[in-house]
From TrEMBL:
Keywords: Oxidoreductase. This is SDR family NAD(P)-dependent oxidoreductase. GO terms for molecular function: oxidoreductase activity. It comes from the Bacteria. It comes from Nocardioides pocheonensis.
Length: 258
C-alpha cells in the first residue's frame, strides 16, 4: 500500500514508539498528525516531520474526532497508529486482608479506558473517515495498527489492569479486521517486549537497570529500540497482505511471573 501523499494519525505520537512511527511514516511520504497530550514535544515533532499536532486525550471522543478532521485537511486519511497508553502495577489484594487495600478499582478503569476503549474509539472514528474515499487498485482504503504488549500473553504479577487492556486490544484485532474488510481496511496489532523508552529514566542507574532487564531477552540480550517497533508499524501499514495479525516484536522474551 502506497502512503505517499496520504495522511496518517499516530496517537501517543509525541515520544517513544509513537514518535518513531511518526518519523518513519513521514519518511514514506505521509502527512502525520501527532495526537498527544504533550504539546511541547508534539508540536516540535510535527514541525520536524512536516505534519500537524493535535492535543488528544484518547478518552475524549471529540478530541479524537478533531485529530481525524485535521488529518483530512492534510490529505485522505489512510493510516491510524494507536500508540497512546499507560501502565499501572498493583497486586489484586493487599497484605492486611482489608477491602481498602485491594487493587484500586478506579486505576483499573482508567487503564482500560485509555488503552482499550481509547484504541477502539480511535479505530471507529478513523475507519469511518477511511471508508469514504476511493479504494486503491487492490481495493484498499486504509490500514490500522494497534500497539499492545507481550503483557497481553505473559502478564506479570501486578499487571492485571495493563494485561487486561492489552489482551483486549489483541482480542479485538481479528473481529475488527473481519468487520472492516468489507470496506478494504486492514487491522493489525504489534506486541512490543521490553523497549528502551524514557519510562526507565536517565543516568547511570537507569542504564544499569536496563542492562539487567536486557539479560532476560532471548536474543539479542538488550532492550529493543523504538525504531525497531516503528519499522514493523510501517511494514504492517504498507504490506497489503498483512491483516488480522498480532505480531510480537520482543527478541523472543517470555516474561516471568515477576
Amino acid at each position: 500500500m502506497d502512503i505517499n501523499g496520504v495522511s496518517a494519525i499516530v496517537t501517543g505520537g509525541a515520544s517513544g514508539i509513537g514518535a518513531a512511527a511518526a518519523r518513519q511514516l513521514a519518511a514514506k511520504g505521509a502527512k502525520v498528525v501527532v495526537a498527544d497530550l504533550n504539546a511541547e514535544k508534539g508540536e516540535a515533532l510535527a514541525q520536524e516531520i512536516g505534519g500537524a499536532f493535535v492535543s488528544v486525550d484518547v478518552t475524549d471522543t471529540e478530541q479524537i474526532q478533531a485529530a481525524v478532521e485535521k488529518a483530512l485537511e492534510l490529505g485522505p486519511l489512510w493510516v491510524l497508529v494507536n500508540s497512546a497508553g499507560i501502565g499501572w502495577a498493583q497486586r489484586t489484594i493487599g497484605k492486611d486482608g482489608e477491602f481498602g487495600s485491594a487493587h484500586d478499582i478506579d486505576a483499573f478503569k482508567k487503564v482500560i479506558a485509555i488503552n482499550l476503549i481509547g484504541t477502539f474509539d480511535a479505530i471507529r472514528l478513523a475507519a469511518t473517515a477511511m471508508s469514504r474515499h476511493e479504494p486503491d487498485a487492490d481495493g484498499q482504503r486504509g490500514a490500522i495498527v494497534n500497539m499492545a504488549s507481550v503483557a497481553a500473553f505473559d502478564g506479570q504479577i501486578g499487571q492485571a489492569s495493563y494485561s487486561a487492556s492489552k489482551g483486549g486490544v489483541v482480542g479485538m484485532t481479528l473481529p475488527i479486521a473481519r468487520d472492516l474488510s468489507a470496506v478494504g481496511i486492514r487491522v493489525n496489532t504489534i506486541a512490543p517486549g521490553l523497549i528502551d523508552t524514557p519510562i526507565y529514566g536517565e543516568g547511570e542507574p537507569a542504564e544499569q537497570f536496563k542492562a539487567h532487564l536486557g539479560q532476560s531477552v532471548l536474543f539479542p540480550k538488550r532492550l529493543g529500540v523504538p525504531d525497531e517497533l516503528a519499522s514493523m508499524v510501517v511494514e504492517a501499514v504498507t504490506n497489503s497482505y498483512v491483516n488480522a495479525e498480532t505480531i510480537r516484536v520482543d527478541g523472543g522474551i517470555r516474561m516471568p511471573p515477576k
